[in-house]
Amino acid sequence: MQAMVLTQRGQPLAWTELPDRQPGLGEIRVKVAACGVCRTDLHVVDGELPHPQFPIIPGHEIVGRIDAVGPGVEGLRLGQRVGIPWLGHTCGACPYCRMQRENLCDRPRFTGYTRDGGFATAAVADARFAFALGDAGSDESLAPLLCAGLIGWRALGIAGEAKALGLYGFGAAAHILAQVARWQGRAVFAFTRPGDLATQAFARSLGAQWAGGSDELPPQPLDAAILFATVGDLVPLALKAVRKGGRVVCAGIHMSDIPAFPYRLLWEERELLSVANLTRQDGLDFLRQAPQMGLVTRTTRYPLQRANEALADLRAGRFEGAAVLVP
Ligand SMILES: [Zn+2]
Ligand SMILES: [Zn+2]
């Protein structure tokens, strides 16, 4: 197999020939057909997450077909198309696993961070955490659903019943979630970097009722806002944009420091909370309904060997929607 390997924080990924891997007990091996590029991959490369492991193959939005099945695997078969998400393993025994909050597991493993991911021609995964994908939709169009879509879905659930929903940072996740929210009958208000008129137009094309800079206030108070941008300065701005009792949900795994802000922005029962990871149930719920939503993912395709270019373009905001690597 070949892979783009991160050997040290901050280094470019290196195209590497590796021995083929065999799936162990309860594992499957997939031939990777497409793997999305997520902002979290940048955090992995930059060493911004705790306890990094090197060498590591990043990538946690994997679509592929099973080409080897280890002993003890149930419910999946050779040749089947599956998706492999960020949540790669949970312990099943800690208090969080036992209270159906496996996204908070004390001993988790994460694809492309603490176990090898999908910036490769093949990937081995714990079969219990892979999702059967069926035959509808192209590999490339489905890849971004596996993190951008899934984490967005979880964040939307945590945002609650909000009819007027703000999305701060209109990248891979928001461009999917805007469509999900419209399908659910919500009004979407999109916030981009100030002056990024192209992304604002992109947001409106996906059904956003209003799009503007993150330094602007929306035309009406929001019921909830979800922050995908990893910029702590946005937290007080979003609190200012939500109504009394409104909710601000931080969906990123990492964020720059949140500046001090006056208590009155939080007062009147506004809530500020974060989303961490996903549960398998989130994935099943989202992927079951996604085919009915008519989602159109905007993808920019890069050959696997050009993963570094995809990461650089993501960092610089040089494309709309999501980047996808194809071996
Ligand atoms: Zn656990
Ligand atoms: Zn991700």
- Rg from Cα: 19 Å
The ordered string of helix (H) and strand (E) elements is EEEHEEEHEEEHHEHEHEEHEEHEHE
Helix content: 10-25%
Look at the structure and give the mean pLDDT: 97
Structural class label: alpha/beta
Q: How many strand segments? A: 17
Number of helices: 9
Largest sheet: 7 strands, mixed
- What proportion strand? 25-35%
Query: Shape from CA axes?
Result: globular
Low-confidence stretches: none
Q: What is the distance, rounded to the nearest whole angstrom, between the alpha carbons of the first and last residues?
A: 11 Å
User: What ligands does this structure carry?
Assistant: zinc ion
Question: In brief, what are we looking at here?
Answer:
By secondary structure, this protein is α/β, with parallel strands linked by helices. It is built from nine helices and 17 strands.
Walkthrough of the structure:
- The protein is α/β, with parallel strands linked by helices and 327 residues long.
- Helix 7 links the parallel strand 13 and strand 14.
- Helix 4 crosses helix 5 and helix 4 packs across helix 8 (280-293).
- 25% of the residues lie in helices and 27% in strands.
- The strands form four sheets. Strands 3, 4, 5, 8, 9, 16 and 17 form a seven-stranded mixed sheet that branches.
- The model has no long low-confidence stretch (mean pLDDT 97).
- It starts with a strand and ends with a strand.
- The structure holds zinc ion (2 copies).
- One zinc ion is lined by residues 38, 40, 60, 86, 147.
- One zinc ion binds next to loops.
